[in-house]
Specification:
The protein has helices at 2-16, 30-83, 87-147. It is mainly alpha-helical. The two termini are 37 Å apart. The model has no long low-confidence stretch (mean pLDDT 86).
Length: 148
Amino acid sequence: MELLNILNELEELIEESPKVPLSKRVMVDENKILDYIDRIRTTLPDEVRQAKLLIKEREKVINESRREAQQLLENAQRQIEKKANESEVVEMAQNKAKEIIQQAEKIAREIRLGARDYADEILQKMENDLSKLTKQIKAGREELQKMK
């Protein structure tokens, strides 16, 4: 992930920057920090697009599962009609078909929720990382302002 690489580089810049004597503060090149911020801004849309693609792929799997379940149901109904016309057999087959559909819908629901949770988790992590980075940058800039 490009965003994580940029954040690692930024962290490395901060760690390698000269320390201000008698403090825990460091002096960093403002242009370098601003360059990293620009790179993060350009990378974020890619990360968000990847999360959206993942959700789209999960939705595709859900739809395919529904189609397969529908096909299974249709096949089962055709076979039942061919093999027996007895009401008991037909009723049992219909119940089984309903169970298959319910199971497929349950699986589809679980996949959909899992995809949303995963995308939310990724976006939350990105938001937290960006928030930390913003705080570090703000603190660095405030420190630079104090030095003027």
